[in-house]
């Protein structure tokens, strides 16, 4: 009888011990689970912080890139404006030189006309030395002006009249049928400076 009671008590103690052991295992499992959850939360927070830092670094790089592009565009615009300014001022300077040269050349044309008239009159005399001297001066002046771009337009009687190249001051009955609509006489010579006509030849045409 006592043996059965002791056996039962011994079984109760074993059951209690098993329950206590199971309880301890459950508590350890719960503690480990809680610890793992805390670690996971901390890791997630660290990952979020790292992602935010990476995002901030990326945003800063993009901002710097945009600023560099903006400065580059500004520089290119300034460079283009400077090139346009340089080209414009160069063209204006060239036009100024041409204009100044043209004014000087135009002021010399009446002097050339006077030389032509003087030579025509001197040729009627017998003073050959005077003719030679005036021709030398005339030729020297013309050669100097020619070196600066002045050229006499070649126009003669019998040439076809061109309103773009000639200035008709009057019309006369053509002395010959071949001269109808053509140049009969050249009253004043024309001159070009480079490719520009600075004085149109004045002519008489036949009708």
Automatic annotation (TrEMBL):
Please list the residue ranges that the record marks as compositionally biased, kind Low complexity. 40-49
* Region annotated Disordered, chain positions: 1-61
Record carries keyword Chaperone: yes
Location(s), subcellular: Cytoplasm
Q: Which Pfam families match?
A: GrpE
> From what superkingdom does this record's organism come?
Bacteria
Q: Where is the composition biased (Acidic residues)?
A: 27-39, 50-59
Could you tell me the keywords of this UniProt record?
A: Chaperone, Cytoplasm, Stress response
Matching entries from InterPro entries are given as: GrpE (IPR000740), GrpE_CC (IPR013805), GrpE_head (IPR009012)
Q: How does it assemble?
A: Homodimer.
Q: Which PANTHER family match?
A: GRPE PROTEIN, GRPE PROTEIN HOMOLOG, MITOCHONDRIAL
Similarity comment: Belongs to the GrpE family.
Alphabetical list of HAMAP family matching this protein: GrpE (MF_01151)
Q: What does this protein do?
A: Participates actively in the response to hyperosmotic and heat shock by preventing the aggregation of stress-denatured proteins, in association with DnaK and GrpE. It is the nucleotide exchange factor for DnaK and may function as a thermosensor. Unfolded proteins bind initially to DnaJ; upon interaction with the DnaJ-bound protein, DnaK hydrolyzes its bound ATP, resulting in the formation of a stable complex. GrpE releases ADP from DnaK; ATP binding to DnaK triggers the release of the substrate protein, thus completing the reaction cycle.
Name the record gives this protein: Protein GrpE
Name its species.
Mesonia ostreae
């Amino acid at each position: 009888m006592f043996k059965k009671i002791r056996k039962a008590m011994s079984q109760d103690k074993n059951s209690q011990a098993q329950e206590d052991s199971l309880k301890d295992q459950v508590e350890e499992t719960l503690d480990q689970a809680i610890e793992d959850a805390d670690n996971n939360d901390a890791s997630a927070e660290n990952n979020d912080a790292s992602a935010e830092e990476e995002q901030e670094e990326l945003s800063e790089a993009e901002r710097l890139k945009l600023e560099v592009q903006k400065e580059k565009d500004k520089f290119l615009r300034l460079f283009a404006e400077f090139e346009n300014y340089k080209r414009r001022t160069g063209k204006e300077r060239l036009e100024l030189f041409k204009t100044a040269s043209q004014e000087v050349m135009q002021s010399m044309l009446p002097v050339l006309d006077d030389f032509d008239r003087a030579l025509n009159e001197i040729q009627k005399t017998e003073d050959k030395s005077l003719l030679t001297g005036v021709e030398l001066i005339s030729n020297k002046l013309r050669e100097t002006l020619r070196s600066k771009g002045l050229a006499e337009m070649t126009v003669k009687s019998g040439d076809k009249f061109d309103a773009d190249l000639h200035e008709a001051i009057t019309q006369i009955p053509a002395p010959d049928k071949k001269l109808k609509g053509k140049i009969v006489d050249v009253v004043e010579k024309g001159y070009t400076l480079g490719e520009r006509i600075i004085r149109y030849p004045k002519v008489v045409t036949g009708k």
